[in-house]
Amino acid sequence: MAIWIEVDLCNGCTRCLKGCPYDAVEMKEGKASILERCTSCGACLALCKQKAIQTDVKPRVIPDFSDRKGVWVFAEQRHGQLHAASLELLGKAQELAAILKQDVSALLLGHQVSNLCDTLIKHGADNVYLAEDPILKDYRTNAYTNIIEGLVREHKPNILLMGATHIGRDLAPRISRRVEVGLTADCTELSIDPEEKILLQTRPAFGGNVMATIANRYSRPQMATVRPGVMEAVIKSGNKGQVISYKGVLEEKEIGTKLLETVKEDKKRVNLSEAKVIVAGGRGVGDAKGFRILEELAGILGGEIAGTRVTVEEGWIPYDRQVGQTGQSVRPELYIACGISGAIQHRAGMMNSRYIIAVNKDPRAPIFQVSDWGLVGDVHEVIPQMIEMLKQQKI
Fold first, then answer.
1. Paired strand residues for 112
2. What are the sequence ranges of the domains in the chain?
3. Which top CATH class is 272-393?
4. Are the C-beta atoms of residues 203 and 61 closer than 8 Å to each other?
5. Domain spanning 71-254: CATH superfamily
6. Residue 71 predicted with pLDDT over 90
7. CB–CB of 171/162 below 8 Å?
8. 191-247 residue pLDDT tens
9. Contact 169/141 with Cβ under 8 angstroms?
10. H helices then E strands: how many in the chain?
11. Do domains 71-254 and 272-393 have the same CATH topology?
């Protein structure tokens, strides 16, 4: 299979030269010529108005997916508690399913977790596929993968969504490989194409400098993991769903791993996606010592500390405290941005905050464009004053 030029038809317009993503076209004596590095991607075919570019590559046919129905959400639970990301995804699933005129289903795996079904139905699940077994008490990759693979092959969903959590990031690629479909990781937005009715999956690319929108036209289910905190949980009043029990049999020998001991990390900090108040610092904080005053403010307000990408790269705060396109997405009640200029990469991670207070000595800083209140001044002068005032108020 190849692409070639009908020289007699070529008028040397150079459209194909400019439009080739692989620089596989050059001009020779005023005519286009295809180089060996051509991948036959076909980008040049639509550009040529003279129809001088020819190919014997047959266009890929989109299969018939009319039997693929439903928007599925993996309902992640740990020790009998649903992860907030799962409820957020059910909120988005309701929106997607309404456009497609399809049902919303939740996949719930664990041991003695049937009491969570009502919560999933309350948050929009029309169906809850419930798999309960002592083997599923703790997450193990093969056990969860085997069950979800079986459910996908039997019920043929159109869309399968998972939270981009530690479990979701391990489980999703295993399932996508098993059922031979693509997977878009760490999405920050999901929508339905109005014409093709396929899932459009948006995620940061090239270090967060651009946002890429990805569509899967050739396989089902359409799979994506979504960052916690970017969607909003929605309660569907009066929703009546059904619970469908998994009938398969699990055996330990199929799992491949055995949990010997669970070691819990002693964490005093709350996950940023669950924090109600966040005090975040940027380059303007100066150094790691500068974060101590921010930690004091966060402590008074009962909040959590966070930062921009540069503060993580400089080692001032841990990676799990980063907010932005390449970090976490948060939606606290109050977000205090200290010494943060407000680059779009950071704003994308905190724009869903209910109230935003910005402190920056540059009055033209972009952060002021999205803040509810702005304080122009040096962080090292303003924040201590805020702390003193809060102490006097006994907050």
1. none
2. 3-55, 71-254, 272-393
3. alpha beta
4. no
5. HUPs (3.40.50.620)
6. yes
7. yes
8. 999 999 999 999 877 666 678 899 999 999 999 999 888 888 999 988 999 999 988
9. no
10. 9, 21
11. yes
pLDDT in tens, 328-377: 888 899 999 999 999 888 988 898 899 999 999 999 999 999 999 999 99
How many angstroms separate the CA atoms of 84 and 380, rounded? 35
Dump the DSSP string for 26-81.
Answer: EEETTEEEE-TT-----TTTTT-TT--EEE-PPPPPPP--TT---EEEEE-EETTE
The token pair at 362 is 């540059």
Q: pLDDT tens-digit profile of 9-58?
A: 999 999 999 999 899 999 999 999 999 889 888 889 889 999 999 998 77
Between 257 and 122, residue with greater pLDDT: 122
User: CA-to-CA distance for 231 and 96, rounded, in angstroms?
Assistant: 12
CA distance 108 to 132: 8
SS3 318: coil
Confidence (pTM): 0.75
The secondary element (H helix, E strand) that includes residue 13 is none
> Longest C-alpha distance within the chain, in Å?
85
- Give the length of the chain: 395
* Residue located via tokens 């540059």: 362
Q: Could you please report the per-residue DSSP string of 323-382?
A: BSTTSB----SEEEEES----HHHHHHHTT-SEEEEEES-TT-GGGGT-SEEEES-HHHH
Cα–Cα dist 291/297, whole Å = 10
pLDDT tens track for 143-165: 999 999 999 999 999 999 999 98
- The beta strand positions in 69-220, using DSSP E, are 71-75, 77-78, 81-82, 104-110, 127-132, 159-163, 183-187, 189-192, 199-205, 210-215
Residues 6+ apart with CB under 8 A from 383: 293, 294, 297, 338, 359
Given CATH 3.40.50.2300, say whether it is the number of domain 3-55: no
**Alpha-carbon distance values, 319 to 112, 227, 343 (Å):** 34, 15, 18
